[in-house]
Design goal:
The complex is a heterodimer.
Chain A lengths: L14 H5 L20 H10 L3 E7 L2 E6 L4 H10 L7 E8 L8 E9 L4 E9 L6 E3 L8 H12 L2 E3 L31 H9 L3 H4 L16 H27 L1
Parallel strand pairs in A: 2-5, 6-7
Antiparallel strand pairs in A: 1-2, 3-4, 4-5
Chain B lengths: L29 H11 L3 E5 L2 H10 L22 E5 L7 H10 L5 E5 H6 L20 E3 L6 H16 L24 H7 L15
Parallel strand pairs in B: 1-2, 2-3, 3-4
The chains are: A alpha/beta, B alpha/beta.
């Protein structure tokens, strides 16, 4: 279950930045390839986590922080929960694999702080050959659910603690591997006829049913006002159908 | 009715209105009448998955006006459709859906494969995209283009009209339902599919992934 966001003073975009007297961000011109002003959150991270912050660099005006693998969950929780950072929007969870053997695989988290109007990219490096495991952040951001499923589907990264880690783009019984890995041949591992056979053997009715779209299961998790609205609408529908039935009896 | 009354190819002739009931008859070939009715109001089942669907919408809109061919009634239920227009790329995940929609259409039915991706996989010679929908379902007309212009789609529709108009009711082999092999789910031999899906053009020289 996702922990609710802490109560920031305000979540209006730019509210915290205005309160701190920082100037509004402008569309940058002539941004340097490397170097430039670092995201202020990095200094706070160094102070709080010390050696777990491996290094940070600025490229095209965007700050990237490389974090030790075992600290990434705490780092993201800190960035989300502290009102001084307030990264309340998880943009993306993905991974990068390089062709070079000595380049480690990178897991990437993109965070955005709406109150401070800041953007921060976090990376964890996993050397080639080591198991691709990372802690899930679905307990911090509900949106991490599908992003981590996609990352698992495409790269084979196992997010520990994810409630429902299964494929999302490819079908459940896909057996050729993880398509965005560098050792995956572009046309897939199997012959075209074999790929077609496997794809056509899927039970479409079982897989693509309307029950996937229903919100009945999620009813208890909905916000109270939405539940009330749905209950009112349902009561009105019931009353209307009862009236129709009565009218039918009279006729 | 007076459908075609030129020279010796007079097929349907309206009798002179003399007022006598004896004169109220027309003669024609049943084939012609049935084919004329079928080709003049083919209800399309649009299966739009990509940019070709935008061109299809342009074809259906007022400037190109599919209503001229009796096709303005898009049938979003396959049960009432005559021609399946597959407009756009079909990923493998969608292949069983496309086949099921085709199987749900009643006979007689026709298929137009619109655009390079539907016809051959197009530029998407990769693990995710079906290399031509003719590996899943039989196709009557292929429309080249990326995406094809509305004129090209209308040309394909007119070609399909010609094909329908040459059909004979006695020819029972025309409209037999495909019966896929229960093991492989394919309706043509696997070797034929591998041959159809061979890379072509520049993609023959594409970089293979490093080991």
């Amino acid at each position: 279950m996702t922990r609710p966001l802490p109560s920031y003073p305000s979540t209006r975009p730019g509210s915290a930045r205005e309160a701190a007297g920082e100037p509004a961000p402008i569309t940058p011109h002539h941004v340097a390839h490397r170097g430039g002003a670092e995201n202020p959150s990095v200094a706070a991270l160094r102070e709080r986590f010390g050696a777990a912050i491996v290094r940070a660099h600025v490229m095209w005006g965007e700050t990237t922080v490389i974090v030790a693998a075992d600290a990434i969950h705490d780092v993201i929780a800190f960035l989300r929960d502290e009102p001084a950072h307030a990264y309340n929007y998880l943009v993306d969870v993905t991974a990068v694999e390089y062709r070079d053997a000595e380049q480690p695989m990178e897991l990437v988290w993109h965070l955005r702080s709406l109150p401070w109007q800041r953007f921060l990219r976090l990376k964890v490096e996993i050397p080639k050959g080591e198991p691709l495991v990372a802690p899930s952040i679905t307990d911090l951001y509900a949106s991490a659910d599908w992003l981590e499923r996609e990352c698992f589907d495409m790269f084979g990264v196992t997010f520990t603690g994810h409630p429902d880690l299964r494929r999302i783009l490819m079908w459940d019984t896909y057996r050729e591997g993880h398509p965005l890995r560098k050792d995956f041949p572009l046309r897939g591992r199997f012959s075209r006829s074999e790929q077609l056979t496997q794809a056509l053997s899927i039970d479409t009715v079982g897989r693509y049913s309307m029950t996937e779209l229903t919100i009945a299961e999620a009813f208890d998790d909905l916000p109270a006002d939405m539940r009330e609205r749905l209950a009112e609408r349902r009561a009105a529908e019931l009353a209307r159908s009862m009236r129709t039935l009565d009218a039918g009896d009279d006729a | 009715m007076g459908l075609i009354t030129t020279g010796e190819r007079t097929i349907v002739r309206a009798p002179e209105p003399t007022g006598s009931t004896q004169d109220s008859w027309v003669t024609s070939r049943l084939d012609f009448l049935v084919n004329w009715a079928r080709s003049s109001s083919m209800w399309p089942m649009p299966f739009g998955t990509a940019c070709c669907a935008i061109e299809f919408m342009a074809t259906a809109a007022s400037r190109y006006d599919l209503a001229r061919f009796g096709m303005e009634r898009l049938s979003f239920s396959p049960r009432q459709a005559d021609v399946l227009i597959c407009a756009g790329r079909v990923p493998y995940k969608l292949a069983p859906v496309l086949r099921r929609i085709y199987q749900q259409m009643p006979q007689p039915k026709w298929v137009i494969s619109m655009g390079a991706c539907a016809s051959s996989g197009g530029m998407f010679d990769n693990y995710a995209v079906v290399q031509g929908i003719d590996t899943i379902i039989p196709v009557d007309v292929y429309v080249p283009g990326c995406p094809p212009r509305p004129e090209a789609l209308m040309y394909a529709i007119l070609m399909l009209h010609k094909k329908v108009q040459t059909e004979r009711l006695r020819d029972g082999a025309r409209h037999t339902e495909i019966e896929p092999d229960p093991q492989s789910h394919l309706y043509i031999p696997p070797s034929r599919i591998d041959e159809l899906s061979e890379p072509f053009g520049n993609s023959v020289h594409q970089t293979r992934s490093a080991p």
